[in-house]
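Consider the tokenized backbone below.
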């Protein structure tokens, strides 16, 4: 080491502190080794009594601390960067925008295995024919067509990565057979990106209808642009995605597709795999840890040409990224609700801009944020107003529940419609967004109800297995056999959940199969895929389930949808409640009549004359959403204003309140309230006590994002100095989606 010019490394470390850390290069490193320390590699360092893995941000010969006080790092863990410039920039943006320490953001962007010192970039398995293998001809494989395919693919190519072989429909066991016969061999090597002249398609794309074609033609590739594809359910948005991706692949680029929950929509991934002959990889939290590193690496190395993933995939490394697609962009799951509270959709926009590529946001029910941007012409607004594939839009009927005899919440008229549907040999879907048997267990003689010990909430009664369950904190209890307050032995289950609806419907339609679809019944990994298969076989059956059924499924035989309860959304205290209700109704309704047979949707409500509900049903989501935008504009709520929530919770209510009172005071000093900036609170959260903690919040609203970022930065700094901030759990939620 040159002592006059020691090498100073600036690192981002995964600690809760909002700063960088400086270290010297490892003491025993030669100048050549020091030169090899390049930003984006992982470095192992001492940190107090711990050893941490951080990311090298920059290298210099000066430090902001006295150099003699800096400790040397232990070692560099990588020979080449694991975080490249564009991901680094995205992490830096996210850290600043969401007020989160950069080191933690960067670690979140890496697969878990690389967060530890012993994790390393994997190598890729390649296959090629042996000399014996090359000498054969297809006659030799007459009786084993799978081996023949594998042999043919290998014969006409340089060594191929296993992922690329899978994409070409080559069976892994066939490769193993060839290997056994010494006709093929495999070896490990650093992954190489595929040559650009790849065959991209596996099947001929559909002919687009005019609206789809117009949407595709509007997209400018190779340049930033945000496109909102607002297409009614079943209008063929996916086909537009597929054809846009094909263009990008043909230009030798990669595509990133973000979807809400992969496990719930196995059909989506299947459609991509059917269409494309290129390697596709998945990134979501259900991929096992080891496989996640491999999948991540195949994107990183350029092997995978398409990445389909959930919100975390917005950080996926794609060296040749050419387009980002966010499907069902309105979906709440794109917002992480803990830790780094980021919106993957919003980060996707930032990423597309930094990479200068197009971003496609698709939904039948766009979020008001995106719709507003489209109406303001900040986004290109593409609309698909017709269903593709000759399917008609379903007829929506509002059913006035005040005049209806009912069976556990399901109206007689709905029962009759279900009966007729099953008689015709078709499938019906009953949507009830509450799992369990009944939302409460009460004593009708004294008014007692089963409440959670730890939350301001009632416990839900479940029947299979029988238990009381708090859906907010997870607490469980056995249902009492008599009222604990007045000893009345007859307790009543009040209201309905999916289990009760299932029981009622099974009793009424005992000739038919009734399938319950909720978090409890769909725990097994492939449950949704199996259900999809069963439904596609087309036997008449009745589905009862929660919002799991609302997500992008394509079940051609479902012709009737019954929405049991829309009133919850109308009465919600969250200012987004009504928007969510509208999205949910339209998404669930959209499952009806997606093929040749027309669909009907029955929407049950006790408030059938609610103006927004009526508008939703008679005019559709677009006009409904515009009306809500009007309301938001008049009371200056998002998207007309930029919000942040400072949340605090503590076992002692006064501590949480005191911290927020202090925060409000600091904020007012930093930025006095004005029409540009306002503070509300501390106010109790909707559920004031949850999981044995009292919860309060301070609402901050700004006309300008920049003011918000600056204020929050100073506020966090000041709060970190408050003794109380160590004893209270607090967090900042920028652009909160859930106000609870
Ligand atoms: N141009 C086309 N010609 C024929 N069929 C098409 C065309 N485009 C799409 N389809 C078919 O229409 C059906 C619905 O399309 P798709 O699932 O893409 O709709 P979507 O807009 O994504 O719906 P949702 O928002 O409800 O998920 C599919 O079976 C699809 O194969
Ligand atoms: Zn609870």
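A designed sequence for it:
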């Amino acid at each position: 080491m040159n002592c006059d010019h020691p090498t100073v490394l600036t690192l981002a470390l995964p600690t809760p502190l909002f700063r960088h850390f400086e270290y010297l290069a490892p003491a025993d490193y030669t100048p050549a080794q020091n030169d090899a320390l390049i930003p984006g590699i992982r470095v192992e360092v001492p940190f107090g009594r711990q050893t941490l893995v951080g990311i090298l941000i920059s290298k210099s010969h000066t430090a902001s601390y006295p150099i003699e006080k800096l400790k040397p790092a232990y070692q560099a863990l990588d020979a080449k960067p694991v975080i490249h410039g564009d991901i680094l920039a995205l992490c830096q943006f996210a850290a600043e925008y969401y007020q989160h320490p950069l080191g933690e953001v960067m670690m979140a962007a890496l697969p878990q295995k690389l967060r530890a010192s012993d994790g390393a970039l994997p190598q890729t398995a390649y296959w090629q024919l042996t000399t014996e293998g090359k000498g054969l001809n297809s006659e030799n494989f007459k009786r084993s067509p799978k081996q023949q395919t594998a042999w043919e693919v290998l014969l006409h190519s340089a060594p191929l990565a296993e992922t690329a072989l899978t994409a070409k429909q080559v069976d892994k066991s066939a490769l193993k057979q060839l290997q056994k016969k010494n006709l093929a061999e495999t070896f490990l090597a650093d992954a190489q990106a595929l040559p650009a002249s790849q065959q991209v398609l596996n099947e001929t794309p559909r002919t687009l209808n005019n609206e789809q074609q117009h949407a595709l033609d509007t997209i400018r590739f190779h340049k930033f642009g945000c496109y909102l594809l607002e297409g009614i359910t079943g209008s063929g948005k996916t086909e537009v995605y597929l054809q846009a991706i094909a263009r990008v692949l043909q230009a030798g680029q990669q595509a990133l597709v973000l979807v809400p929950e992969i496990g719930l929509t196995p059909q989506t991934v299947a459609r991509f795999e059917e269409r494309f002959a290129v390697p596709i990889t998945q990134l979501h939290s259900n991929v096992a840890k080891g496989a996640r590193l491999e999948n991540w690496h195949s994107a990183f190395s350029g092997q995978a040409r398409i990445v389909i993933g959930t919100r975390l995939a917005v950080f996926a490394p794609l060296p040749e990224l050419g387009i980002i697609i966010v499907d069902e962009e309105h979906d709440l799951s794109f917002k992480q609700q803990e830790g780094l509270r980021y919106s993957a959709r919003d980060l996707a926009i930032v990423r597309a801009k930094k990479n200068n590529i197009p971003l496609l946001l698709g939904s039948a029910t766009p979020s008001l944020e995106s719709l507003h941007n489209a109406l303001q012409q900040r986004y290109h607004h593409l609309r698909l107003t017709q269903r593709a594939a000759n399917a008609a839009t379903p007829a929506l009927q509002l059913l006035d529940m005040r005049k209806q005899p009912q069976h556990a919440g399901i109206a007689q008229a709905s029962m009759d419609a279900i009966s007729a549907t099953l008689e015709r040999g078709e499938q019906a879907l009953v949507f009830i967004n509450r799992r369990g048997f009944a939302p409460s267990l009460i004593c009708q003689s004294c008014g007692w109800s089963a409440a959670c010990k730890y939350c301001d909430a009632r416990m839900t009664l479940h029947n299979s297995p029988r238990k009381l369950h708090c859906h907010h904190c997870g607490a469980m209890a056995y249902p009492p056999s008599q009222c604990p307050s007045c000893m009345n032995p007859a307790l009543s289950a009040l209201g309905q959940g999916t289990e009760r609806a299932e029981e009622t419907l099974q009793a009424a339609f005992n000739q038919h199969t009734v399938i319950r679809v909720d978090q409890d019944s769909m725990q097994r990994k492939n449950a949704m895929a199996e259900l999809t298969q069963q439904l596609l076989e087309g036997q008449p059956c009745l589905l009862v389930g929660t919002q799991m059924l609302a997500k992008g499924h394509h079940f051609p035989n479902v012709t009737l949808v019954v929405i049991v309860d829309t009133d919850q959304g109308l009465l919600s205290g969250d200012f987004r409640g009504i928007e969510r209700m509208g999205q949910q109704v339209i998404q669930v309704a959209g499952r009806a009549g997606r093929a040749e047979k027309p669909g009907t949707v029955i929407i049950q409500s006790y408030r059938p004359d609610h103006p927004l509900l009526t508008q939703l049903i008679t005019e559709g989501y677009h006009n409904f959403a515009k009306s809500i935008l009007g309301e938001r504009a008049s009371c200056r709520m998002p998207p007309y204003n930029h919000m942040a929530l400072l949340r605090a919770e503590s076992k002692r209510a006064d501590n949480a309140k005191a911290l927020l009172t202090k925060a409000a005071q600091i904020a007012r000093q930093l930025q006095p309230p004005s029409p540009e900036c306002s503070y509300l609170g501390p106010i109790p959260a909707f559920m004031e006590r949850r999981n044995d903690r009292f919860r309060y919040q301070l609402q901050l609203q700004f006309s300008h994002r920049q003011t918000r970022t600056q204020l929050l930065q100073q506020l966090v700094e000041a709060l970190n100095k408050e003794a109380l901030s160590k004893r209270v759990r607090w967090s900042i939620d920028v652009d909160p989606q859930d106000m609870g």
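The chain has a mean pLDDT of 91.
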